[in-house]
Design a protein that fits this description.
By secondary structure, the protein is of the alpha/beta class. It has two domains: 1-83 and 176-186 and 210-257, 3-Layer(aba) Sandwich (Rossmann fold), CATH 3.40.50; 91-173, no CATH class. The protein is built from ten helices and ten strands. Strands 6-7-8-3-9-10 form a six-stranded mixed sheet, with helices on both faces. β4 (61-66) and β5 form a beta hairpin. Bound molecules: adenosine-5'-diphosphate (ADP) and magnesium ion. Adenosine-5'-diphosphate binds at residues 17, 20, 22, 40, 42-48.
């Protein structure tokens, strides 16, 4: 079933809520070496699709194949462990904790030593803590958020919170990264920074990224292939140039004032 070269495969996924069909027979694949964008008007089903990949929603039909797993059958709490990390359209962080603590919390899924053991047996638990700390410090440097490492996240400006959320996803050391409108609500400069981070992550870590984004210029600049959804239906799938020239897309989306 899985095609050579494809890293993640969405296979005939159907999701409905009562009479609302959020995803209607959706199929596409994501290769290891690409940034794959999902675009479409509000309500098109973009977030629902990410929710199916990350196990928040269970599609009624279809399969999502990733690294030997069918994510539609994988318990939700296992999905981060198999290597899927995401950010949310509405930022989801521990608002009362610092940047550092939010990133460290993400490392807990990798900690083999339970916390009681950490108190009692400082040997292996201590080594693990040092390793987690090093990984988190590298991410803080990389995302240029050292100046807010001890700041309470809830008090940070929106653009920085978005960056912390990206950091938290990276702290999971994912094999694939799902980003739901990471640049929404940002000014031009913040958007450019975020685009640069996304490209850097993709290059340095060599992981595929699935990106939902409304800023069409940005999407066309940084993605390799684009899926277009409209009312739960996939209306186009191709390179940015092909998508820009696609009549269905122009009608459904780009032509929208
Ligand atoms: N939990 C839910 N319960 C009921 N309807 C939902 C739920 N999640 C999404 N939907 C519906 O599915 C459709 C697609 O929504 P969504 O995936 O959020 O679109 P997008 O992210 O493209 O704006 C919408 O009609 C939305 O109302
Ligand atoms: Mg959405």
């Amino acid at each position: 079933m899985s095609q050579p070269g494809s890293f993640l495969q969405i296979n005939r996924v159907h999701l409905s809520f009562g009479h609302t069909i959020a995803l209607d027979d959706i199929s596409f694949d994501v290769r290891q070496d690409e940034i794959r964008a999902i675009i479409g008007p509000n309500g098109a089903g973009k977030t629902s699709l990410l929710n199916c990949i990350s196990g928040f929603y269970r599609p009624q039909e279809g399969h999502i194949l990733f690294d030997e797993h069918d994510l539609t059958q994988t318990p939700t709490h296992e999905i981060a462990k198999v290597g899927v990390a995401r950010t949310f359209q509405n930022i989801a962080l521990y608002t009362g904790l610092s940047t550092l603590d939010n990133l460290m919390a993400a490392r807990h899924i990798h900690m083999k030593q339970p916390s009681l053991a950490s108190a009692l047996y400082w040997g292996p638990a201590r080594r693990e803590e040092v390793k987690n700390r090093r990984i988190v410090e590298e991410i803080i440097d990389f995302l240029e958020i050292a100046h807010i490492r001890n700041a309470v996240v809830g008090a940070l400006p929106y653009g920085l919170r978005k960056r912390v959320e990206l950091g938290r996803a990276l702290a999971l050391e994912p094999k694939v990264l799902l980003l739901d409108e990471p640049m929404a609500g940002m000014n031009v400069e913040e958007k450019e920074d975020m685009a640069r981070f996304i490209l850097d992550i993709h290059e340095r870590r060599g992981i595929p990224i699935i990106l939902i984004e409304h800023d069409m210029g940005l999407v066309m600049d940084i993605s390799d292939r684009v899926v277009v959804l409209d009312f739960g239906i996939k209306i186009a799938d191709g390179t940015p140039d092909a998508i820009k020239a696609d009549e269905n897309v122009i009608r459904a989306y780009l032509g929208e004032a």
